[in-house]
Amino acid sequence: MSEENKAENTNQPISAMDSPTREDGVQTGEGRVSFKSNIDDILFSDESPSSPSSAGGAGDVAIDGFKSTSSLVNRILNEDESQSESMSITGESPGTPSRRVRSVQFALDAPSVASNLDDATEEQLLKRIAKMQDIITQTQIDWSGEKALRKRKDKNLVKLAKELQKRATDLEVKDKQIAKMTSMVNNISDQYKLADTNLTRSEGKYRAAMMEVEARFANVQMQHRSTCNDLEQRYRTAC
Predict the structure, then answer these.
(1) Which tens digits make up the pLDDT trace of 208-222?
(2) By mean pLDDT, which of 14-28, 59-73, 158-172, 204-218 is the weakest?
(3) What domain range is 70 assigned to?
(4) Which of 45, 60, 71, 170 has its Cα between 20 and 30 A from that of 82?
(5) Can you tell me where the transmembrane regions are (predicted)?
(6) What is the SS3 string spanning 73-90?
């Protein structure tokens, strides 16, 4: 590529309308590369960001193109810094529920130093992009490890939930048995109280009958002695 073409490409701003754009956000024109506007695409994309050498211009990325996107990079860095500060204080990412038991640390949790990239050179921007790619890669690795750990813990929680459900079922069965046995004990207790009342009543009747019999026996015995004494006296008189 000649010097005139380079200068011409340098003076032209990067625009999404200059050349067709692929689905991954990289333009296919000579030396034109657009940044992905969605940070989620950068964080969770399987494809690595295209370098200037892989673009159509083979290292002919325009300096003005990087400067035209410096405001976007600054905004992303500022947002990353604010999110990192909030996550370092609370241990939680914005928009996620509060978890006071345990905080997860990823590579993106480290505070990033935001700087003005308006006067940055191409080499500095490439270094910054490479650094951000390393951070994203490390974050993906940390997220994979955390995902595997949470999956294993979820399995343990499911197993524990099944065991708790089984024990809860056993407790329900035992509670029913206890209720049934309690009802039986109450019935037996009522029967015992009724039998004790009847026995006490019968005992009173028996004692009253015994007293009456003893009184009659004493009366008969007294009459017998009186009769015996009378007969003995008559016999002596007759003799």
Answers:
(1) 999 999 999 999 999
(2) 14-28
(3) 3-160
(4) 45
(5) none
(6) HHHHHHHHHHHHHHHHHH
In terms of Cβ atoms closer than 10 Å to its own Cβ (0-12, 13-18, 19+), residue 18 is middle
Q: How far apart are CA 76 and CA 38, in angstroms?
A: 10
| pLDDT at 62 (0 to 100) | 44
Residue where the block lists tokens 């193109």: 65
Please, what is the Cα angle at 22 between 133 and 26, to 5 degrees? 35
Residue 136 is assigned to a structural domain of this protein: yes
130-180: per-residue pLDDT in tens?
Answer: 999 999 999 999 999 999 999 999 999 999 999 999 999 999 999 999 999
Take residue 11 and report the two structure tokens written for it. Answer: 């003076």
Is the per-residue pLDDT at 232 higher than 70? yes
